[in-house]
Amino acid sequence: MKKVWIIGWKDLLVLFRDRGALILMLAAPFVLTLGLGLVTGSFAQNNSTGTGLADIPLAVINLDEGELGTALVDVLTGSDLADLLEPEVVTDEATARLRVEKDELAALVVIPADFTQSVIPNLTTGERTTAVPIEVYANPARPISAGVVRNIVQAFVSRVDTGLTVTQVTVTQLVRVGLLPMANITSAAQAIGQQQMTQIQNEGAAVIEIVRETAVGASNSLNSLAYFVPGMAIIFLMFTVSMGGRSFLDERRSGTMARLLATPTHVAQVLGGKVFGIFLSGLAQVGVLVIGSTLLYQLYWGDMVGVLLLIVAVAIAATGWGLVLATLAKTPAQVTSYGSALMLIFGVLGGGFVDMPREGLLKLASRITPNAWALDGFMRLHKGGTLADITVELLALLVMGALLFSTVVLLFNRRSLLADR
Amino acid sequence: MLSKLIAIFWKDTIIRFSSKSELLFFLILPVVFTLLLGNFRPSGSDTDNRVPLLLVNEDNSALANNLVAALAQLESVRIVALTRSEAETAFAAKEAPALLLIPVGFEQALLTGETAVLQFSQLPNNNNGNVAAQAVQTAVNQIGQPLAAARNATVEAAARRPFATEQARTAFFNASLQMAQEIAQEIPPRVTLTQPQAANIDVNSYDPAAQSSAGQLITWVFILLLGTSAMFAFERSKGTLRRLLTTPTSKATFILGAMSSNYLQSLVQMAILIAFGMFVMGVNWGQSIPALTLLLATFGLTAVSFGVMLATFVTSTSQANNLGVMLGMSMALLGGCWWPLELFPPLTQTIVKVLPTTWAMQGLTDLALRGHGVSGILPETGALLAFAALFLAIGLWRFRFE
Asked: Which of A60, A108, A139, A208 to mutate to test the interface with B (most CBs of B within 10 A)?
């Protein structure tokens, strides 16, 4: 057992002294997480949008003489949307359009003349002018931002139409059942209409409210880093175990493996030590990343026992894959290439970069990656889960490691793994 | 000199592709990432490509069913009706990006004038979840309007003269609802979305395929060309660079040859990925082939110059390869190649302009989305050439053969 430990510890030290390897083992996950944090705005303390989308630049032109145009301008320039929009009320339509085309603005909102008159009927005649829609002139290079602006404008006009429908239906029904004399229609309509107008401007209580939450808690409290940090740690864990697997071939080529086998050390001890070295390297790497991200990004991981066990389990599963690489590759360069490719493919399939849909073949493919299982486990713990909540993930990772290790040991002669081919 | 350049080009190509694993980074990984991150679905297949939305209807009332019907009519989502436990299990397994729960009491709340509450859950870091959220909001707006009218009329009527029975209240509510629905159907469109005439896409139906193809092209070409540093490191470690000093080949010829070989390989890679984007992902790369060629050629020059500069800082092949992957992915990420630049915070959008990948991505966006030609991408091309000159100047100044 002592020899197994010594061999494993030796491999760990060799790997962590390789400055080239440290770049992908430690530097890359931190740098990429930092980048992801900057991109998603996770570091912004007042990021009330919950995403990086903020201060969408747009211009507004109000050609309407009525109250609806003014109300829409007030909504777009109001404090409620101050974090999301950066509006500018302009008068020169041609220049504003040019600015959209030059990618200086995400959209231009043109409130046409007679908009109010086309929406709100004349109280005496009940007539409206010809419908003139509001135009949202979108920048095709910013489709998401333009879509957000369109949705805000659409929500406003929906509230307007709701108010009008409410007024019309209420008055009509009250008259129909005899609760409102015909002579009082106009005053009643004005009173109800005024009440609805107030609701439009103040966004009064909705009929139907949607309570939104992400899978890791209330949408306003989600820290995207809680998703990205474990994702990156596990992606680059695959690189570490592939480097561990590479050490098999490196030692075979350099002759140190032959010398080791010539000592009074049993083959099983050598193999066990090498495997233990891969496991230790992975464990150490993830451990460093977890501690580092906790200190740097003030990240909350959840139940610490669960986190530790999950780290051990994912290191075991990843070790299995490192062993498979060492078995199948013929040269150290092949291990590095295949290992890097496996790292990236597992990363994208397992949802380490972006959350992938798990349907059909993609679902099956994600399940053979340690990334998917481990990420699910870390998310559950971050959400407040306990050890009992991640039993499935822990078991899956342990079974994956055991299966891979058994497959390698059963299919390949131990000596062929350690001897030069 | 030409024969020497060709010889160096051939030598480098043989070295690079002597191992089949090189195809992984040259072709396979770029294609796989483009497919997966572009949410690619084969056209004409039987698969329903709409975003699945898990739906739990615990109320099962007429009004709840109205909401379900409104959702079913939308083209962006596909309803998957399940029991609560089934839906929660499926959501936990990430089989769908969103779950909508219509709780018991939904209709009752609407009839009594209270606010009816829906529970909507979505997966984090998932664009399809946002699509589903938008669809739910659209459906709620659609049925909310007549409901608000019917509710208000009922409350007003009750305030003037209380209903004799609950059935009378319900009958009045339903009559009001029907009237409101008829009115809603006659409302003309109030908002139109327009875009510049030259635009290459329909903003109304945004497809992430263009963003994904462009972003992955820049990412993987950049990583490939940063591998130029690994090639120099390899030759330096083998001593072949030293031996070249004894030959009649000048340093300039060797460096030019090495750069040219990597650059030409990248042009081949870019051509393959462009064709893949066009024929498989259905990406429209714009109206101007000269503009596309100019942008990609300039970007390739910038990337290979960066590789030459990087070669002067690394001391081993392993360092060079790993730094290439790390820098390539980081600069691609920050340059807007993985997520659109418009999603970045405003300050970050300004800061990342110091990266060549930002300008390359901006150029491809101008071509593929805004429909620009050569004149439209001159600023990006100019910036990339400036980067190339800077990187090359630093690289040549620091270059050592030993």
From this structure: A208
Residues 356..395 of B with a Cβ closer than 8 Å to A: which? 365-366, 369-371
Domain count, chain B: 2
pLDDT, tens digit, 9 for 90 and up, residues A371-415: 999 998 998 898 888 899 999 999 999 999 999 988 887 766 655
Task: Report pLDDT digits (tens) over B262-281.
Answer: 899 899 999 999 998 888 88
The answer to whether the beta carbons of residues B136 and B90 sit under 8 Å apart is no
Task: With CB atoms and an 8 Å threshold, state whether B95 touches A140.
Answer: no
pLDDT tens across A4-45, in order?
Answer: 888 888 888 888 888 777 887 888 888 888 888 777 766 655
Write out the two tokens for B227: 């591998």
Cβ distance of B345 and A52 shorter than 8 Å: yes
pLDDT bin (cut points 50, 70, 90) of residue A263 is confident
In a domain, B201, yes or no: no
Return the SS3 of A270. helix
Count Cβ neighbours within 10 Å for each residue of B203-219 and write b for 16 or more, e otherwise.
Answer: beebbbbbbbbbbbbbb
DSSP B400: -
Q: How far is CA B162 from CA A73, A168, A192, in A?
A: 40, 21, 19
Interface of B with A in 100-139 (CB under 8 A): 110, 115-129, 133-134, 136-137
Q: Which domain, by its residues, includes B19?
A: 2-39+208-398
pTM above 0.90, yes or no: no
Q: Are residues B129 and B154 located together in one domain of the fold? A: yes
Instruction: Map out the domains of chain A with their CATH numbers.
Output: 2-42+223-418 (no CATH), 57-218 (3.40.1710)
DSSP state, residue B27: I
